[in-house]
Design brief:
Strand order of the largest sheet: 3-4-5
Order of helices and strands: HEEHEHEHEHHH
Number of helices: 7
Shape: elongated
Radius of gyration: 18 Å
Largest sheet: 3 strands, parallel
Helix content: 40-55%
Amino acid sequence: DPRKGLDLLIEAIGWLAQQSRSPPLELVRFGTDREGMTLCNGLPTRDIGTVRNDARLRFLYSACDLLVVPSRIDNFPSVALEAQSCELPVVAFRVGGLADMVEHRVNGYLAEPEDPRDLALGIDWCLGLDAHTRQRMGHHGRQRVIERCSPDVVARRYAHVYARALHSVNG
């Protein structure tokens, strides 16, 4: 799906592959769409496939340094929410719900839309942080999820919306 931005991720990875990094990058991907990831400029890629077990998913997130969501358009991607819940910084384009989920340089990095070089710079910036700073970013992401997306918070917001709607109908 072109909206998911795989081509932009591949271009960003191409730019990163040209940089000399120590240690070198390694990609971990999971999900059902296997098309395109063989084009990642020779970077080692671990293709996990579909993950249906929450404990395994948490383990995968904890084994990574960051999550990249290269979507051109996305409302509120659960993968970013899950990663933040596991204290993983998120690098994404400043689009849709991602702009609400990621605070630039607080719990991740927001690249300018459709700009693979900026996405690459965000990936490089996050990976260049020391472990303590990256961990602090992950903690900020988790706190943001708890404060904005936990079931009790969402339920209170819905109740408020319904109460206002009933009040406007009943006058």
